[in-house]
Amino acid sequence: MESIQEVNAKLLEAREEIHKGIVGQEEMVDGLLIAMIANGHVLIEGLPGLAKTRAVNLLAQVTKVLFHRIQFTPDLLPADILGTRIYNQGKGTFENQYGPIFGNFILADEINRAPAKVQSALLEAMQERQITVGDETKKLPEPFLVFATQNPIEQEGTYPLPEAQLDRFLMKLVVGYPKKEEESEIIRMVVSETKLPAMNPFFQPKDIIAMQNMARTVTLQDELIHYIADLVLATRNPEEYNLGDFKQWIYHGASPRASLALAQTARAVAILNGRDFATADDVRSIAHSVLRHRVVMNYMAEAEGIRSDDFVQKIIESVKAPV
Question: What are phi and psi of 219, to 5 degrees?
Answer without folding.
Answer: -70, 130
